[in-house]
Design goal:
heterodimer, A: alpha/beta, Glutaconate Coenzyme A-transferase, eight-stranded mixed sheet, three-stranded antiparallel sheet, 11 strands, B: alpha/beta, three-stranded mixed sheet, 12 strands, about 15% helix
C-alpha cells in the first residue's frame, strides 16, 4: 500500500546534504513552500545550490537561507526585487554565486531534466550577454542558444491538495514552477494544505501525477484545524 | 512641444490593441494599458507566472495570496481564464502564440534591438525574468517608454549601449512625443502628437527618422 505522507517537517528534509542542489517552487509570494524552507533552514545543510525563480524578500523563505549562509549558489531569473535585501547584500559582497537565466530558459531546463531531454536550442538570449560562452547555432536563418537540462537532488514544493499517492492539485497561480520541478528532482517533497484519500481527486484535474512525488506533508495549521 | 503623460502613452497603445488579441503587458507602466482598452474589445491578458484571462484587481478583502500577476500584484481571473505551469506559459511566449507584448525599455536601436533588463552599472545586481523570452517570442513587440532619459538624452539610438534583451525584435515604439515603426528602411514616424514637428522629435532622437509615409 502506497502512502507518501510524512508527519514531521524535519523528517521530510533530513536527508538533504551539504552541497545538494535544491529546487524551490514559487513565483514572487505565490506557491512557496515556506514551512519546508524553514525545516531546511533548521536542518542546516550548507553550501546548497538553490534553483528558484526569485531569491526571497525580507527575512522570509529563501532569504532566510541566504541570511544563515546556507547557500553557495543560486540559479535564478529574477533575484532582485523590492525587499530582496539578503540577496543584494551577499551578492554585493561576492559571497553568493549567481547563475542568471531568462525565465523561460530556467523553466525549460528544468522541464528538460524531468523529461529526459539532453539539451535544447532556444532563441531566447541569442546575441545577448546571457548567451556568452554558450554554444549557438543558426537554424532556418534564426539564431539559437544551446541550453543543458537542469536536474536537482531535491525539490521542495507547494500544492493545494495531495492524496496518499502524491497526486497534486494547485491553488490558482500558485502552480508556477511547482509541477515542472516535481519532475526534475531525485527526491520531490511537497507541502500541501490538505491530504485527501486516494480517489478523492478528480483524475481529469490532477496536475502533477504522483509518479513525480516522493513525500507529501500537510501544513501544521491545517492539521491542527482538522484535529 | 507636446509631451504626453505616462497614462496618456498607455492610452495611445491601448487604442492599437485589437479585439481578440492575446496580450502580455510588461511590469510597471505597460500594465496600465489594460485600463484603457475599450470595453467593446475582448482582449485576453497573459501573465508569465501562468495565467490566461487575467482580470482586474480584486475587491479589498477578497484577495487570494496565490493569485498574483508577474508584477506580484493581486489579480483576479476572468470567466474562461485558466492556469498552467511556468514551462507551458513560456511555450506560449517563446513559441509565438502571443499576438502582442508591450514592454518598457531603457533603449531601442535603429533596427529594433531592445535593451530593457540591465544598465552598465555592474555594481547593481542583475535580474532578467521573462523579458528576453517575450522579446523573441511575441508576434509583435511594442515598446512603451519616455522618448528621452530624465536629462533629455535620446533613448532611441543607432546602437544600444546597454546590454541587449533581444536583437531586432521591436516592431513599434510609443513614446511621449510620437509613435515610431521599426521598418526594413529604418525608423519611420507613424504619428506625431498634435503640436510636435518632425524636427522637434528628431532633435531628441539619436538616429535619423523617416517622415510619416
Amino acid at each position: 500500500m502506497i502512502d507518501k505522507t510524512i508527519d514531521s517537517f524535519s523528517e521530510a528534509v533530513n536527508d538533504i546534504r551539504d552541497g545538494d542542489t535544491v529546487m524551490i517552487g514559487g513565483f514572487g509570494s505565490s506557491g512557496i513552500p515556506l514551512e519546508l524552507i524553514e525545516a531546511l533552514r533548521l536542518h542546516g545543510a550548507r553550501e546548497l545550490v538553490i534553483v528558484s525563480n526569485n531569491a526571497g524578500v525580507a527575512e522570509e523563505g529563501i532569504a532566510s537561507l541566504l541570511r544563515d549562509r546556507l547557500v553557495r549558489k543560486i540559479v535564478c531569473s529574477f533575484p532582485r526585487s523590492a525587499g530582496s535585501i539578503w540577496f543584494e547584500r551577499l551578492w554585493e559582497r561576492g559571497e553568493l554565486e549567481l547563475e542568471l537565466l531568462p525565465q523561460g530558459t530556467l523553466s525549460e531546463r528544468i522541464r528538460a531534466a524531468g523529461a529526459g531531454i539532453g539539451g535544447f536550442f532556444t532563441p531566447t538570449g541569442y546575441g545577448t550577454r546571457l548567451a556568452e560562452g554558450k554554444e549557438t547555432r543558426v537554424i532556418d536563418g534564426r539564431g539559437y542558444v544551446l541550453e543543458a537540462p537542469l536536474p536537482a537532488d531535491f525539490a521542495l514544493l507547494k500544492a493545494d491538495r495531495a492524496d496518499q499517492w502524491g497526486n497534486l492539485v494547485y491553488d490558482t497561480a500558485g502552480r508556477n514552477f511547482n509541477p515542472i520541478m516535481a519532475t526534475a528532482a531525485r527526491t520531490t517533497v511537497v507541502e500541501v494544505g490538505q491530504i485527501v484519500p486516494v480517489g478523492d481527486l478528480n483524475p481529469e484535474c490532477v496536475v502533477t501525477p504522483g509518479i513525480f512525488v516522493n513525500r507529501v506533508i500537510a501544513r501544521k495549521e491545517n492539521r491542527h484545524a482538522a484535529a | 512641444m507636446q509631451r504626453l503623460e505616462p497614462e496618456q502613452i498607455a492610452q495611445r497603445v491601448a487604442a492599437d490593441i485589437p479585439d481578440g488579441a492575446y496580450v502580455n503587458l510588461g511590469i510597471g507602466l505597460p500594465t496600465m494599458v489594460a485600463n484603457y482598452v475599450p470595453d467593446d474589445r475582448e482582449v485576453i491578458y497573459h501573465s508569465e507566472n501562468g495565467i490566461l484571462g487575467v482580470g482586474p484587481a480584486p475587491e479589498p478583502g477578497t484577495e487570494n495570496p496565490e493569485l498574483i500577476n508577474a508584477g506580484k500584484q493581486y489579480v483576479t481571473l476572468l470567466p474562461g481564464g485558466c492556469y498552467f505551469d511556468n514551462a507551458e506559459s513560456f511555450a506560449m511566449m517563446r513559441g509565438g502564440h502571443l499576438d502582442i507584448a508591450v514592454l518598457g525599455a531603457f533603449q531601442v536601436s535603429a533596427r529594433g534591438d531592445l535593451a530593457n533588463w540591465a544598465t552598465n552599472n555592474d555594481k547593481y545586481p542583475p535580474a532578467v525574468g521573462g523579458a528576453m523570452d517575450l522579446a523573441v517570442g511575441a508576434k509583435q513587440v511594442f515598446v512603451l517608454m519616455r522618448h528621452t532619459t530624465k536629462d533629455d538624452q535620446p533613448k532611441i539610438l543607432e546602437q544600444c549601449d546597454y546590454p541587449l534583451t533581444g536583437q531586432a525584435v521591436v516592431k513599434r515604439i510609443y513614446t511621449d512625443l510620437a509613435v515610431i515603426d521599426v521598418t526594413d528602411d529604418g525608423l519611420r514616424v507613424r504619428e506625431l502628437y498634435a503640436g510636435n514637428s518632425l524636427e522637434d522629435v528628431q532633435a531628441l532622437t539619436g538616429v535619423r527618422l523617416l517622415p510619416p509615409a
